[in-house]
Amino acid sequence: MKRAPRLCSCGLLIAHGEPCPCERRRAASRRDTRPSAAARGYDRTWARLAREHLARHPRCVMCEAGGVFTAAEVVDHIVPVRDRPDLRLEPFNLQSLCRAHNARKATIEKKARRGRGGVEAFSMTPKTTTPSHLHNNPDFFSPAGANSEADSWPW
Questions:
Q1: ∠69-61-93 over CA atoms, to 5°?
Q2: Cα separation, 36 vs 14, whole angstroms
Q3: What CA–CA distance (Å, rounded) separates 135 from 93?
Q4: Are the C-beta atoms of 93 and 79 separated by less than 8 Å?
Q5: Helices marked H in the chain
Q6: What are the b/e assignments for 7-22, b being 16+ CB within 10 Å?
Q7: I want to staple 42 with a disulfide (CB 3.0 to 4.6 A). Which of 34, 37, 51, 86 is the partner?
Q8: Whole-number pLDDT of residue 142
């Protein structure tokens, strides 16, 4: 059974499962302009550090804060490398996340950078620079004006 075509945002009617020419152009443009993973700082040194971090911290810190124990699949920079490249390989700037929480955090950061989506109150800067277990400190990376620990994690 054939599925119905879809309407692309450019106005063209596209067969189900096929990309629109405008989508192909946008994807090609992103591929051409985005630096490689190595150029963005994700090299062999990072891969080794991430592997070691996941071995030491195998659970998602966000799930664990909510009382759920989920295996972490991603090592995340608490303060993004884009904002503080000097913290790229610092163990205190790393946290273990599951894919869902990593995607949620990335979406929040992206919206905050663009200044939309009601994320204006979300603070992108750390509230402390003490290197002791910052990935477990909810005040390190929290919304501005959060009153309780439960309010401090927007994802």
A1: 155
A2: 31
A3: 7
A4: yes
A5: 21-33, 44-56, 61-65, 99-114
A6: eeeeeeebeeeeebee
A7: 37
A8: 46
For 22-57, the pLDDT digits (tens) are: 888 888 877 778 788 888 888 999 999 999 999 999
DSSP, residue by residue, 108-130: HHHHHHHT-SS-TTB--S-S---
Please name the residue that has the structure tokens 């991430």.
50
Please give the structure tokens belonging to residue 67: 């009382």
The mean pLDDT value for 59-71 works out to 94
Beta bridge partners of 6: 14
**Span 99-121, average pLDDT:** 79
By the 10 Å C-beta count (0-12 exposed, 13-18 middle, 19+ buried), 72 is classed as buried
| Tokens read off for 93 | 């700037």
In this prediction, residue 44 carries a pLDDT of 93
Contact (CB, 8 A) for 1 and 16: no
